[in-house]
Design a protein that fits this description.
Layout: E1 2-3, H1 7-18, E2 28-29, H2 32-39, E3 46-49, H3 58-68, E4 73-78, H4 86-93, E5 98-101, H5 111-124, H6 144-150, E6 157-162, H7 166-176, E7 185-189, H8 196-204, E8 210-213, E9 224-227, E10 233-239, E11 242-248, H9 260-271, E12 275-279, H10 288-296, E13 300-304, H11 314-320, E14 326-328, H12 330-336
Parallel strand pairs: 1-2, 1-3, 3-4, 4-5, 6-7, 6-12, 7-9, 8-9, 12-13, 13-14
Antiparallel strand pairs: 10-11
Helix pairs in contact: 2-3, 7-12, 9-10
Amino acid sequence: MLVDDSLVVRSILERIVQQRPELEVCASVPSAQEALAYLDREPVDVIILDIEMPGMTGMDALPHIVDRAANARVLILSSNCVEGGPAAIEALSLGASDTLAKPGRGSFAGRFAETLTERILSLGQRPQPLPLRSRPAAGKAATPVAMAAAEHQRLDCIAIAASTGGIPAFATFLANLDPRTTAPILLTQHLPAAFMEYYARQIATLTTRKVCVAESGMAVEPNHIYLAPGDAHLMVVVNGRRREIALDRRPVDNGCCPSADPMLASVAEAYGSGGVALILSGMGRDGARGAARVKQVGGAVFAQAPETCVIWGMPGAVAKEGIANATLNPDAIALLLRSFQSRRPRP
């Protein structure tokens, strides 16, 4: 479904979408109100939504559209949504699955058309279920087996990998995390460097923990959240009696920067069995290699369940390879961590 007050833009988008035989425009409407009315009648897979519209703006309508559209994915297409910018991050936190900057009137062809259709196809895909024999526990509640294992599991550091769809998933996790869980949180979220400070300020509105973009030499302390800067891998190193932040800018095999693999591998080395890895929604395989290292040293690994993922790429890679202890929704992962044993912080 296309939602844009400009008839010209909607016509251009229709031509782009209809060039792909596997895609179909089911509706093209000029306002958020008409989009909501359509969603009351018909199911939709992907919604392309503009922000600047008369009456109800796309940003105002977004929570209502997400709620009414059930399993549909929303792609914000707006000239205000520079990737990783404040408007894009706000849209993602309100439930959008992805954002894309709208080009100038004469720039809709070429690379933009390819990028748009690639995004629509990615968002429209539904994850394939695992074979029954290898399917891990999923859903909103942890299994008795997972709960029993948690009673003996250490919790000294929580390391989280996230990409497309990771912003709302992390917000859900954080909202359900027991405030008595004081282990430091390391977060690698794929975003450009210029907007990490804004994202840190947004996270700070959701928690009483101190939130900061990581810098080399920072002590890793309880009740803190450290974000990987957009141009470096976030790592932990042991320096005498304390653990410190280190930043690494060397290329990694998966091509991501920041990448979760170095972060998770360093947590395995620094915390051993006290490290916990969470792999949230995202495209690709970033985090799979590092999560395997966490599992190897006795730490716990959790993957986000497919039904709540925008893209089940990163968590799917961990689940399909048998690395994850359990595959759960973000709120269920947070609730399960209540049972983990925390080490008292070093003086």
